[in-house]
């Protein structure tokens, strides 16, 4: 990628779309730029003429509605690995560069997935439930060494998951856009049109794919029927990768053994959802990558990219807007 043109004539104009709180550790950015903090209702007014939009409130759907027809920011950075909320037509068709926060969440999410695999294999969720009920019930548990895991999504998060599970003794393969053998992290990678074939062999199916038109609803009734009755589904990618009603049906009838879900179609997960009550489901509130200090790390990444932009050096984590992929060819998964 060609280096960006340096911004030397004046301090860059940075618009920060915040939520309930401002991002921490912004002092280096504030020393280098004119920073304007806005909420959703002030975004449309602030965007024209800005040099960069820092989408710190990565849950927002407001950017598309506020995007100006003229004088839009030439660069948008989002404080998440997923970029699906930014891939609206006006931005995709524009010259605006999009960067994400790839790298911040890779290792934490991989550790979280390993924890979920161990939780299922060692039946820890049942142990905690029985403890709360004061019930002593001896059980035998499963080994994870030799178990098969298929990681759907071959981007940095998927690769970190694959390395971590392999180190724990699982046999890992992947699902990506193109087939290949001998992948250093995933071994055998099947193309996504062979998803059902891969699911049929998996003890654990881990979803780490970006949300695109191609992946939306990929885990539907047919995909779930392809899985083993002893298999578990783990979703740390995006909620709409899974057709939730189909998943609930498969869990209730025993078509699969369990599911651990960190992301959902509607967040927070509505209280009437049957996913709250199913004993073979682990629900967590979109927290798999959020370790202590993660917010500071997000700001440090943005500050580094801003410094690169000011001095005309290539930006990190540039996204291919047409595919929702980072420039290296790896999926911008969540």
UniProtKB/TrEMBL annotation:
Keyword annotations: NAD, Oxidoreductase
Signal peptide extent: none
PANTHER family: 2-HACID_DH_C DOMAIN-CONTAINING PROTEIN, D-ISOMER SPECIFIC 2-HYDROXYACID DEHYDROGENASE NAD-BINDING DOMAIN-CONTAINING PROTEIN
Family matches, as InterPro entries: D-isomer_DH_CS, D-isomer_DH_NAD-bd, NAD(P)-bd_dom_sf
Xref: Pfam families: 2-Hacid_dh_C (PF02826)
Domain of life the protein comes from: Bacteria
CDD domains recorded: 2-Hacid_dh_1
Protein name, UniProt field: D-2-hydroxyacid dehydrogenase
Domain D-isomer specific 2-hydroxyacid dehydrogenase NAD-binding: start-end pairs: 114-288
């Amino acid at each position: 990628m060609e280096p960006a043109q340096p911004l030397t004539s004046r301090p860059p104009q940075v618009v920060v779309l915040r939520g309930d709180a401002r991002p921490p550790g912004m002092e280096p950015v504030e020393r280098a730029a004119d920073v304007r903090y806005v909420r959703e209702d002030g975004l449309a007014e602030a965007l024209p003429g800005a040099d960069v939009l820092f989408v710190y409130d990565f849950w927002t759907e407001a950017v598309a509605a506020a995007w100006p027809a003229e004088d839009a920011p030439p660069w948008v950075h989002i404080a998440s690995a997923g970029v699906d909320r930014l891939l609206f037509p006006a931005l995709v068709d524009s010259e605006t560069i999009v960067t994400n926060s790839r790298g911040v969440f890779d290792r934490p999410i991989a550790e979280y997935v390993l924890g979920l695999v161990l939780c299922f294999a060692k039946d820890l969720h049942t142990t905690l439930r029985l403890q709360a009920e004061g019930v002593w019930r001896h059980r035998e548990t499963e080994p994870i060494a030799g178990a098969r895991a298929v990681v759907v999504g071959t981007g940095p998060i998927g690769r970190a998951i694959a390395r971590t599970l392999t180190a724990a003794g699982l046999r890992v393969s992947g699902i990506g856009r193109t087939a290949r053998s001998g992948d250093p992290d995933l071994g055998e990678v099947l193309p996504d049109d062979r998803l059902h074939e891969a699911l049929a062999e998996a003890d654990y199916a881990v979803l780490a794919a970006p949300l695109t038109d191609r992946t939306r609803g990929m885990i539907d009734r047919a995909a779930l029927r392809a899985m083993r009755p002893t298999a578990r589904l783990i979703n740390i990618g995006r909620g709409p990768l899974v057709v939730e009603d189909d998943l609930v049906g498969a869990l209730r009838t025993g078509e699969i053994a369990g599911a651990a879900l960190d992301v959902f179609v509607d967040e927070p997960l509505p209280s009437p959802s049957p996913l709250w009550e199913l004993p073979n489901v682990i629900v967590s509130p979109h927290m798999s990558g959020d370790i202590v200090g993660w917010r500071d790390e997000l700001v440090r990444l943005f500050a580094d990219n801003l410094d690169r932009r000011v001095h005309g050096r290539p930006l990190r984590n540039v996204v291919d807007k047409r595919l929702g992929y980072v420039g290296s060819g790896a999926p911008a998964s969540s």
